[in-house]
Amino acid sequence: MTRAVGAGALGRRLFALTMTLLAAGLGSFILLPLLALFTHGGPLSLLRGLGHPVALPALWLSLATTVTALVIVVIGGTPLAWHLARTSGRLSRWLETTLQLPMVMPPSVAGIALLLAFGRQGVLGTPLHSLGWSFAFSSMAVVMAQVFVSSPFYLQAALVAFRRLDANLLAVARSFGASPARIFFAVALPLARPALLAGAATAWARALGEFGATLMFAGNVAGKTQTLPLAIYAALETDLRAAQTLSVLLVLIAFALLLAVRGRATVVGRSSPLEKARS
Amino acid sequence: MTESSVPARLSATVEKTLGKLHLSAHLHVGRELLTIIGPNGSGKTSLLLSLLGLWRPDRGRIVLDNRVLFDSNVPLDCPTEQRGFAYVPQDQALFPHLSALANVEFALTCRQPGLCRAERRHHAFGFLDRMDAASLASRPPASLSGGERQRVAIARALAAHPKALLCDEPFSALSPNVRAEVRGRLAECAEALAVPTLLVTHDRTDVAALAGRVAVMEMGQIVACGSFDELSADPPTPYVTHFVGSG
Predict the structure, then answer these.
(1) I want to staple B196 with a disulfide (CB 3.0 to 4.6 A). Which of A158, A184, A218, B10 is the partner?
(2) Least CB-CB distance to B86: which of A166, A175, A186?
């Protein structure tokens, strides 16, 4: 009896120890590089890195292009997600899956896809170029790359939020005579807002970190297409301190966005037997 | 099947196959409160959703106040928002981001968009007061009890100035005392509103208290219609026998 109790206690301790060691192993692996990023060289070295000529232009370009991309993603993505959430056909399911592809696509593939679509010899790029419009290797190309890679994150969050809206709320509003626009603006949007904000923050963070597609589609021209991730890549060859400073900046911004997401990630709505009644 | 002695304001023939259920209901309702009873899965909610336009019938015709809302022969299918109903679902479906007053104002402005803010608030208070819920005006739905939420939901439905009121088990989550009180209020308001009112319930006391016609739905069809006393005196189906004896 005593031996059985002792074996049980030993098993529990062994389990707790194994779990702790595994958790500590992965946790340390993630935290150590972040710690090194913030502590290597000391705070003065980090501040001096801000004086590197590419630092501030890259920071401003990143902020300007990502905010522009975010506005485009939210303005276009919200109605797209609303439409997809309220349709259940095979075509819409196929479209939804396809629109999620940039999320799992390697950035280099995204860059090639953008070049083939909007480059000077691309599907849409050729006729646009003949009209005098050229996107590739411009600040607009940076925005386009960011929109392409970040929109699935917002779309996914918005789709989930709209699908989780209680269908009874929408049915009741419709029965009262509320127009589709009123239902969207007065019922759906306010209820989905926390999830939409969380999705927007995630999409913004993804756009800020965008590197591969931007490099291939927009190039790496200082002051024009060189965003923070590209500036880090460029500075790495000449000034590790500047690269480290810019990396810290990126991590801080991403961390702030992540905190905002965690604060806002409230699931709104609940399922309802009236799901099928949506139209 | 549900011929009323008064001229029908709402007349509907609805046929729809939903999985195993074949809904085939004929309904004629005057300015009265018609209670619909029936076992689970008999098609009561499906009938309401078809009337609302949330489920499209395979065949049929729905006419409300001499206006054709749906006709599979034409074909004509008026959108839900233009049908003129007000729907009170089982879970009340109050907008959680709006106060009780704002919920009523929402319904009010759907069919009276020209009201100024002061008029809107005045009328909304009036509807809440009719349901003895004026003191709840500033409260969010999450802070209301089941009975309070139901009173606000009914006030909101009345504020939509419906041509017909559709209530799907509105008292099911209420305690017996609150249920009797809210039921009484709804009956008063429905009488004052004088529009066809369809009320789905599973509760014998609701049917006995709401002295009006009762339609019995089974297997997607309205198999009997009459007063509670008539149905009690001569139950047309085993379900009705069980139902009238359940109290």
Answers:
(1) B10
(2) A175
pLDDT recorded at residue A263:
67
d(CA B205, CA B179): 10
Q: What is the CATH number of domain A52-278?
A: 1.10.3720.10
CA dist B171 and B19 (Å) reads: 28
Q: A189 — contact with chain B (CB < 8 Å)? A: no
Contacts of A177 in chain B (CB under 8 A): 81-82, 84, 110-111, 160
Collect all residues from B whose CB is shorter than 8 A from any CB in A.
49, 52, 54-55, 79-89, 91, 93, 95-97, 106-107, 110-111, 156-157, 160, 162, 166
Rounded CA gap, B122 and B128, in Å? 10
Q: Where are the domains of chain A?
A: 1-39, 52-278
Contact B150, B174 (CB under 8 A): yes
Answer whether residue A221 shows pLDDT above 60: yes
Sheet holding B76-77, edge to edge: B21-29, B10-18, B59-64, B67-71, B76-77
* B93 contacts A172? CB cut-off 8 A: yes
* pLDDT at B11 (0 to 100): 92
Distance set, CA B181 to CA A267, B124, B137, B184, B209 (Å): 35, 21, 19, 5, 11
Whether the predicted pLDDT of A62 surpasses 50: yes
How many whole angstroms from its chain centre is CA B33? 9
Q: Is the pTM of this model over 0.90?
A: no
pLDDT band, very low/low/confident/very high, at B138 (cuts 50, 70, 90): very high
ipTM over 0.85: yes
Supply the DSSP string of A161-190, one letter for each residue: HHHTS-HHHHHHHHHTT--HHHIIIIIIHH
State the pLDDT at residue A51. 79
Confidence band of B8 (pLDDT split at 50, 70, 90): low
Angle between helices B146-159 and B176-193 (to 10 degrees): 10
Residue A21 has pLDDT above 90, yes or no: yes
